[in-house]
Design goal:
By secondary structure, the chain is of the alpha/beta class. The chain has helices at residues 42-49, 95-102, 110-119, 121-124, 136-148, 166-181, 193-199, 225-230, and strands spanning 3-13, 16-27, 31-35, 59-62, 65-66, 80-83, 154-158, 185-189, 202-207, 210-216. Helix content is 31%, strand content 26%.
Length: 233
């Protein structure tokens, strides 16, 4: 089974170390949620996986192939796709142009684009629209769709439903479940307990730059002490 494996990872910003010997695993066809209080290093961890910040020590492997130390532009070619907070779309470009940028790594296969648009049909009607004029929910769908044009083995999502209306949240969550069924390993940063229990297979609780505990969601309830301990809810 395809797996993303992280062992003993340290990383940070200049002299500031944020990740401290972090260990983590994500598997194909499973949704793993990262939870923890603000500042524990969740977003930093995703950036380290993508090569966007330098890794000090430790290893990152995907199916046994080392990723640490690769230039950031090489990481997507190995099968990782990332949707950061803030979306980072190309605002002046159209929806179609944003998707084309996402597909450059795989040669913009029309069949891949069709599968992506099937996940987010609303974007099909807006291909000629400038991305910066979309609603917030549509922009988030476009950000995820652009990442999926890479045909990733692992999809990293940093709080993808934050600030969105319930109907858009439902559409995005449905798409994530479909991706799981297609064998994608999904790593999701999410703070809402109800969403985690509904979507995730496992929860990795982070404290001070490391994964402190990993729990199977089948053994978790909304009032489990772990949520109060690690997240404060």
């Amino acid at each position: 089974m395809l797996a993303l494996e992280v062992q003993g990872l340290t990383a940070g910003y200049g002299p500031v170390t944020v990740l401290r010997g972090l260990g983590f695993r994500a598997e194909a066809g499973r949704i793993t949620c990262l939870m923890g209080r603000n500042g524990v290093g969740k977003s930093t961890f995703l950036k380290a996986l993508m090569g966007l910040i330098p890794v000090g020590t430790g290893t990152i492997t995907l199916d046994g192939v080392a990723l640490q130390g690769l230039p950031a532009h090489q990481v997507p070619k190995r099968g990782l796709a990332y949707v950061p907070q803030g979306r980072r779309l190309f605002g002046p470009l159209t929806v179609a142009e944003n998707l084309a940028v996402g597909g450059l790594v795989r040669g913009n296969d029309p069949a891949v684009l069709e599968r992506v648009l099937d996940l987010f049909p609303r974007l099909r009607d807006r291909l000629a629209q400038v991305a910066g004029t979309l609603s917030g929910g549509e922009q988030q769908m476009l950000a995820i769709a652009r990442a999926l044009c890479l045909e990733p083995k692992v999809l990293l999502l940093d709080e993808p439903t934050e600030g969105l209306q319930p109907s858009i949240i439902a559409l995005i969550q449905e798409a994530v479940v479909v991706l799981k069924g297609q064998g994608v390993a999904v790593v999701l940063v999410e703070q809402r307990v109800d969403a985690v229990l509904r979507l995730a297979d496992r929860v990795a609780f982070m404290v001070a730059g490391r994964v402190e505990e990993v729990r199977d969601t089948r053994g978790l309830a909304a009032d489990d002490p772990a949520f109060r301990t690690y997240v404060g809810v």
